Amino acid sequence: MIMVEEVLGLEDGVVTAPEGSLIAVVRSHSRILEVQQDHLAELRQGQHRVQDEVTGLRIDVRELKVGQDELRADVRELKTDVQVLKTDVQVLKTDVQVLKTDVQVLKTDVQVLKTDVQDLKTDVQVLKTDVQDLKAGQEELKIGQAEIRAEQVEMKAEIGGLKADTQRIIGMITDLAMRVAPGRE
After folding, report:
1. Three-state secondary structure call for residue 185
2. Which domain range does residue 70 map to?
3. What's the whole-model pTM score?
């Protein structure tokens, strides 16, 4: 009969699970999740910096937040599963088949997290590109605005000249009318 200590890899009260054992696999996947969570946290910080620069793209950011909330829920579920596994050693002895299924779920979740992290990186790049495009568009608008102002100044000057010409022509017509009909005023 296999003893609990052998299944768990216990020696003098210390877990020394050999490679390939269920606990070693669970720990390995737990470490992978922690690394993925660290990467996810770094990406969130980068995302917040982009949000500060691009207030006009808040709709896209909200969509990213929805995805992040789903990821956080998945991570919380995984943490809960791992905690249950750590605290309930007796369940491990009788429920080995269930744990193997949980390991598969963890592997699938890690792949999903990797895919989601890559999607977040892509979204951040798209947002950065959009910021650059918006800045370039803003510069073009500033140049166009300056050109319109210059044209406006030219038109005002031209209108002023036309007004002066009109006044001069009216004066000439009045003088001519006075000469042609000297008694009418």
Report:
1. coil
2. 4-144
3. 0.30
